[in-house]
Amino acid sequence: MEPLYLTAYTLTNALGAGKQANLDALLAGRTGLRPNDFPDVALTTCIGRVPELEQLPVRADLAPFDCRNNRLAQLALQQDGFQDAVTSLKARYGAARIAVVLGTSTSGILSTEEAFKARDTTTGALPAAFSFRHTHDIFSVADFVQHYLALTGPAFVVSTACSSSAKVFADAYRLIYAGLADAALVGGVDSLCLTTLYGFNSLELVSSDICRPADAERNGLSIGEGGGFAILEKSPTAGAPAIRLLGYGESSDAYHMSTPHPEGLGARQAMEQALQRAGLAPSQVDYINLHGTATPTNDTVEDRAVSAVFQDRVPGSSTKGWTGHTLGAAGITEIIFGCLCIEHGFIPGSLNTRTVDPAFGGRIQLQTESRAVRTVLSNSFGFGGNNCSLVIGREA
Amino acid sequence: MMRAYVTSVGLLGPGLPDWTQGRIILSGAQPYTNQDLPKYAPDILPATERRRCGAAGKLAIYVADAAMKASPRDAGSVASVFASSGGDTEISQKICLALTETERFVSPTLFHNSVHNAAAGYWCIAAGSHLSSNSLSGHDWSVVAGLQAAMSQVCVEGLPVLLVCYDLPASEPLFSKRPVLSHFGAALLLEATAGDQALAELTLTPSTDPETTLSDNGLETLRQGNPAARLLPVLGALAASASRNVVLAAPLHTAINIGITPCR
To answer: Beta strand A287-289 with A375-382: parallel, antiparallel or unpaired?
Structure first.
């Protein structure tokens, strides 16, 4: 496929705000997960929380957009000189030629949860101050980011559960190569809320322990929140690391709403399609960032798909042990981890994993290891059987 | 210029029971009267999935299936883009309500149906499609988002893509905060080349003109009251087999022009 460069990127999650905090935690093997202390949630589990959000309202002129999800978007945009990179991008292409394509699963639903708690006891009406459009609306985060950065190109939100912010790369590629934009701001934001904490809990997918991806005794996920953004352009920018999106693959399981295909058919198709677009053989991939949510079924099925494509030749790990499952932000978070691996030459281990499931056929990287990384494949799979794999690589 | 061919259409809305009848009305040959939505069932969904699927999914799948029935292509052989402002907001409302109760029990079915791509997930199961499926929102501009995403996929990947636009009202109290006034769903099968089936060629370009409105008051009310119904002026041109430029409003006071040229 045609070239598309990641000329700037940034991320914020339970490991901290910005690339350096994330890199430090990855290299030190320090998790961002902590025993659940989310206000008004009485569940025994670990969460990946960005605690400073409670004190950081959105910019005053955008006050109606104030909600946990947009606060996290704003905090992420403020790191790593990202806003300067957008300013320079606007100078090059003009605001109308920059697309904004972002992923989220639950958007600002926490605000609706709070509005329902505060509803009028006689009429049932929600508080007058609650604005659905600016908070919970699925488009809210792209609307906020467009306003925050004054970008006026094509804009939408992809919401395909946990593959959302991986698929935005494919959408941006198509918008740019169809000629609708010269560059794109992609990314995703998902924030903690009662809907996902209690919802995944009722599906019995949440671990009461810390999540242990690929472990023989794994028993569920830890939910986290996160946000990340990247700028995509047709040509590299001087001074930026020349990392390219080499391929993407998208597929559907057509099997079940919340359980993956038992043989990982859709996952396999997504990986094969991404490799095909990249023009790479499986052996040319240096590291696989697994979706690896740490639920018994998901990890088993992903392993079947990965070992069908790569056998045991390519080391893979899930980084959910650091951040928790950031749901609609998992795709962007983990592709940026892939960029950090390429830039700094390391493969992250599988944090919290004690004994790899003996039934696994793929190669799980247990310990973080320093080594040159040129090409990374990242998997993101969501409810509805929605799968996306991305391949990124350093310019030869 | 970005170009795609419409090869079939699915439609359901108040007073617009299907494309065959809707086409006559939208072409102006018969007057529009706002009527209750006819009873409809998405037959393509297996019975077990039909029981689990939410109201938004049923609406989206019904029009998706209608478009595919009007096409010689197999439903499983096309990629899909589902564009909806809110998806099933009624489900989010039920969950938020359950979370105010002491036991905070979120039904597993409600939870997995609450994702914005629930309709797309059920569609892929029903159609047996393993191809790419996307679910988008662009608030009141979701139709624009859907056209941008689906047409760019047709152009760049050369695949047939089924674009499904749908929105429906939530009940109170959420209704007052996001008043979607009616059910509306429409699906367009978009293809890269003009085969025998092509109804019209569509082009997409930026515009600075004011958005196109409808002269019929009933249809204009429908258009304004449901984000998915913003597709009506495009459907009107397809129905009339007329060469037209339709301007659709996009975020931040921008707009796009959809150029429609009939193929037969």
So the answer is: parallel
Neighbours of A63 (CB within 10 A): 11
Identify the pLDDT of residue B1.
82
In one letter, which amino acid is A212? R
Which is the catalytic residue, given A134, A136, A261, A291? Answer: A291
Block residue for tokens 């529009």: B32
| Choice among A193, A211, A325, A388 that is catalytic | A325
Mean confidence (pLDDT) of chain B: 97
Across the interface, do A160 and B139 touch by the CB < 8 Å criterion?
Answer: no
CB pairs under 8 A between A and B: 225
Mutate to test the interface with B, among A104, A156, A162 (most CBs of B within 10 A): A156
In chain A, helix, strand, coil percent, each to 5? 35, 20, 40
* ipTM given for this complex: 0.98
Say yes or no for a CB contact (<8 Å) between A156 and B117.
Answer: no
Note whether A114 contacts B: Cβ–Cβ < 8 A.
Answer: no
Q: Where are the beta strands (DSSP E) in B116-253?
A: 133-137, 161-167, 184-191, 200-207, 244-250
Longest dimension (CA), chain A: 67
Peptide bond into B173 cis (omega under 30): yes
Task: Determine the average pLDDT of the residues in B182-206.
Answer: 96
Q: In whole angstroms, what is the distance from residue B262 CA to residue B256 CA?
A: 19
- Quote the CA–CA distance of A90 and A8 in Å, as a whole number: 14
Q: Is the pLDDT of residue B264 over 80?
A: no
pLDDT of residue A396: 63
Where exactly are the structural domains of chain A?
5-394
Residues of chain A with pLDDT under 50: none
Residue located via tokens 């990340």: A228
Model confidence pLDDT, tens digit, residues B112-156: 999 999 999 999 999 999 999 999 999 999 999 999 999 999 999
Contact B111 A200 (CB under 8 A): yes
Positive/negative CA dihedral, A164, A185, A142, B5: negative
Ranges A282-291, A351-360, B33-42, B218-227: which has the least confidence? B33-42
Q: Which residues of B218-240 are buried (b: 16+ CB within 10 A; e: fewer)?
A: ebbbbbebbbbbbbbbbbbbbbb
CB-CB under 8 Å, B125 with A255: yes
- Region B2-262: CATH code: 3.40.47.10
The closest CB to that of A156, out of B106, B138, B206, belongs to: B138
pLDDT of residue A67: 98
Note if A325 is an active site residue.
yes
Instruction: Looking at the structure, give the CATH architecture of the domain made up of residues A5-394.
Output: 3-Layer(aba) Sandwich (3.40)
A194 in contact with B at a CB cutoff of 8 Å?
yes
pLDDT tens, B60-88? 999 999 999 999 999 999 999 999 999 99
- Any chain B CB within 8 A of the CB of A372? no
